[in-house]
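Hi support team,

I'm filing this because I wasn't sure whether my run with iron/sulfur cluster finished correctly. The job status page said complete, but I'd like someone to confirm that the output block is well-formed before I use it downstream. Pasting the exact inputs I used:
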Amino acid sequence: MSLRIVFEPTKCQGYANCLIEAPELWDFDEDDNKAVLRLANPDDTLRTRAEASARCCPAQAIRVEVEA
Ligand code: SF4
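And here is everything the job wrote out:
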């Protein structure tokens, strides 16, 4: 299985919940006040964290796709 994280920066409002849930996957751009996706295709071991970051985003800027 492979993971694909789809991030829409235009929706991001800088809450930083994603970083708290999955610091391996996200950085934060202080100038833009937006999250920065570090890994668009993370290892499957990060699936739980990736899904948590999507679930916790109040702006619905993150989607996780799982491909068989
Ligand atoms: S949780 Fe959502 S709105 Fe907040 S920084 Fe992350 S992507 Fe942006």
